[in-house]
Amino acid sequence: MFYCFARVLPRSRRIASTLGCCFLASAFSAAALLAAEGDSAPGIVRIEEDWELQVAIPDPDSDAPQISVVFAPTANVDWAYAEFDVNHHSQPGFIPGGLQLQVWSGGVPIIANNDPDGGIISQPEERVRWTQSMSLKDGVLTFAVERGTSTTWGSFGGDGKLTIRTAAPLTDLNGYDTAVSLRNSGVGYAANRVKVLKIVAVRRYTADGRVLTTDEDQICFEHD
Length: 224
Prior knowledge:
Shape: globular
Number of domains: 1
Strand content: over 45%
Number of helices: 2
């Protein structure tokens, strides 16, 4: 059975390719990227967000709940961002369960990367934790999900899994804004089955080796 998923951002119904491991994706629009980058001073080359999902009572028969988390290298998500889907795949079509990382540009999905474990959340009170990152080096932007832990999928991410690399004419990640992640992420289906979805820490790595850390809970969704 297909369950309608309320998207946080506009979506295209087609995807260019779906891969099970990490490859170089199509380049973003250079003009759009340079316009989004603005006049930020160079410095930040890597961003890490630590996320936590606390489930209440899931319903595996209806693949509930379904979560999507967006992260972007600049504050303009109209041109490019990554999305991490939890407990479902949305590209190129809906599949219940599992984990999927996607990269979008100009409102169009350009690549998706699936974790090989397609399990469906079924354990009450389950907690899913992961780190999602962006890093920039030599004109290549890498999106990744790392250090994931859960009852359903065990350890996930890292070692090239749930990783996508794409060419991007950026000089730094100074345009990143945590508020963009919080504003564009959420529970797309069965929000009543989620206790909380939150960022617990953010780390910004600079080109000269410094690490700037925000170590506090930032709530994306919380059930009353």
